[in-house]
Amino acid sequence: MKTISGTLTVFAVTALAGLAFAAGGKDSKKGEDLFRQHCMACHADGGNIINPAKTIGKETLKASGISDWKGIVKVMRNPGPGMTKFDVKAVPDKDAKLIAEYILKTFK
Ligand code: HEC
């Protein structure tokens, strides 16, 4: 166990999460997984490491005119400066909605 690498640990955790999902996880769990996969690098804990003024907490989103999942998906398809663009090939509409719903219910 002492020699296990970080990469292996991440792999094991991901594999376990996948198993949990396969064993009957809900859409919300999938939204969380997708968020971790695509958004976490910049928006860990609902923040924003590149532009700290543009977090994805509810109040900040509201100030940006974003109040529902559609608004969040719109940002993914056509992001502002510094954010990766996620088109339908990278994140299909169904998954984009799950991510958006996860964000809305998770970050204040
Ligand atoms: C490479 C870093 C990066 C990644 C990855 C990233 N974002 Fe962003 N995000 C940003 C930056 C930078 C901004 C601010 C852009 C601007 O100035 O309008 C932003 C802004 C946003 C906003 C608007 C926030 C506001 O207060 O106006 C939303 C919503 C958002 N991101 C959602 C997402 C989602 C969902 C994902 C994953 C699918 C994601 N982001 C992945 C960097 C990132």
Question: What is the compact description of this entry?
Answer:
Residues 1-22 form the signal peptide. This protein is mainly alpha-helical and 108 residues long. The protein has helices at 6-22, 27-38, 40-43, 58-63, 69-77, 93-106.
Label this structure with key terms:
binds heme C, mainly alpha, Cyt_c-like_dom, Cytochrome Bc1 Complex, Chain D, domain 2, Cyt_C6, about 110 residues, iron, 6 helices, about 55% helix
Structure description:
By secondary structure, the protein is mainly α. It has one domain: Orthogonal Bundle (Cytochrome Bc1 Complex, Chain D, domain 2), CATH 1.10.760.10. It contains 6 helices and no strands. Helix 2 crosses helix 6 (93-106) and helix 5 packs across helix 6 (93-106). The longest helix has 17 residues, at 6-22. The structure holds heme C.
Structural class: mainly alpha
Overall 3D shape:
globular
Mean pLDDT: 88
Quaternary structure of the protein = single chain
Largest sheet: none
* Associated small molecules: heme C
Instruction: Tell me the name of the CATH homologous superfamily.
Output: Cytochrome c-like domain
What helical percentage do the residues reach? 55-70%
Number of helices: 6
User: What integer value in Å does the Rg equal?
Assistant: 15 Å
Along the chain, the helix and strand elements come as HHHHHH
Low-confidence stretches: none
> Which band does the percent of strand residues land in?
under 5%
CATH class: Mainly Alpha
Number of domains: 1
Q: What name does CATH use for the topology?
A: Cytochrome Bc1 Complex, Chain D, domain 2
Care to count the β-strands? Answer: 0
N-to-C terminal Cα separation, in Å? 38 Å
CATH architecture: Orthogonal Bundle
Domain Cytochrome c: 26-107
Keywords: Electron transport, Heme, Iron, Metal-binding, Signal, Thylakoid, Transport
Protein name: C-type cytochrome
Family: Belongs to the cytochrome c family. PetJ subfamily.
